Each structure stands twice: as structure tokens, then as C-alpha cells.
Amino acid sequence: MENRDKYYMRLAIAEAKKAEAMNEVPIGAVIVLDEEVIASGHNLRETTQNAAAHAELLAIEKACARTGSWRLENAKLYVTLEPCPMCSGAILQSRIKRVVYGAKDPKAGCAGTLMNLLQDSRFNHQSEVVSGVLEEECGELLRSFFRSLREKKKKEKTVAKKNGTNSTN
């Protein structure tokens, strides 16, 4: 199963790179049903100015439309970053069977890092969770994106200071 997980995670990474090309945080997701990719998504929060435009939520919405059901009971979700509380809730509500993620999220991870909503027995559904698939590659996408963003902001501040203007970001 590990090779299949890596294969689908590479597709999620390709989605993350689409987000990065749009100056979005590079997070991507794919949903697989019966070994077929039925939906994919990448972060679009900045583009849409919608707090809910996370890769997982966009992919879940597409998968539900494709299957004609809100129940994705036999589906597997592959995502480059550990799901946040909002996405974990949507995963549980859509009954996704298995979640495979790459990098851990120490600030908002709800699939084992801060807490594990996906396997909490108090809910009426739990998902199998597999973490760390292509973790280094997924993590490096995020690290390089934020490193580049910090460098850009630093340059903008330097230019603004040089020109005697205030930078407002």
C-alpha cells in the first residue's frame, strides 16, 4: 500500500504546486475512490478571500458533486499538510474512510499533532490516519514558500525605508 500512498501523495504535491504558482500557501489534496482520483483541490484562500477555501474542503466538495452524495465512505484523502480543525470536521462529516498526509502541522494539526479529531471515538465516524508520507518533500514546499515570502517582505521594508515611505504589510 505504501507505493500507492506515495503515488497519490505526488498528485497532491502537484496540486500544492498549482497553489504556489498562484502565491497561495502550497497545500494540495486528492480524493481517491476505488483506485481512481475523483477530485482534487489546492488552497485558494488568498485568491477567493474565503477562509474556507482549503485544499481538502474544495476536494471534498468536488468529490460529493462527482459521486452525487455527501457520503464518501470508501474514499481516501491524500493531503500534503495535516488537516486543520475545520478540514478534519469536514472529513468526519463526509465519512472519508482514510486520510493520508505528508507534513505535520504544529500550529493547527488535528490528525495527531495538536489533537486527533479524526480518530476521536466520541464522534459517530472515525477515519484511518496515515502520517508522514513524503513528509520531507511536503514540508520543504511549505518551508521554501514561507522563506521566500519572508525574504520578499524584508526587501519591501528595505526599499520602503530607503524611499522614506512606510511599508504597511
CATH topology: Cytidine Deaminase, domain 2
Largest sheet composition: 5 strands, mixed
DSSP strand content: 15-25%
Number of strands: 5
User: How many structural domains can be distinguished in the coordinates?
Assistant: 1
SS field, number of helical segments: 5
Contiguous low-pLDDT stretches (5 residues minimum) are: none
**Mean pLDDT level:** 95
Radius of gyration over all CA atoms, rounded? 17 Å
SS-derived structural category: alpha/beta
Query: Class in CATH?
Result: Alpha Beta
Molecular shape: elongated
* Topology order in helix (H) and strand (E) letters: HEEHHEHEEH
Q: Helical proportion? A: 40-55%
Lateral strand order in the biggest sheet: 2-1-3-4-5
Describe the oligomeric state of these chains in a short phrase.
Answer: single chain
- In whole angstroms, how far apart are the ends? 45 Å
Family: Belongs to the cytidine and deoxycytidylate deaminase family. ADAT2 subfamily.
Cofactor: Zn(2+)
EC number: 3.5.4.33
Protein name: tRNA-specific adenosine deaminase
Show the helix and strand layout:
Blueprint: H1 2-21, E1 28-33, E2 36-42, H2 45-48, H3 55-67, E3 76-81, H4 85-93, E4 98-103, E5 128-130, H5 135-162
Parallel strand pairs: 3-4, 4-5
Antiparallel strand pairs: 1-2, 1-3
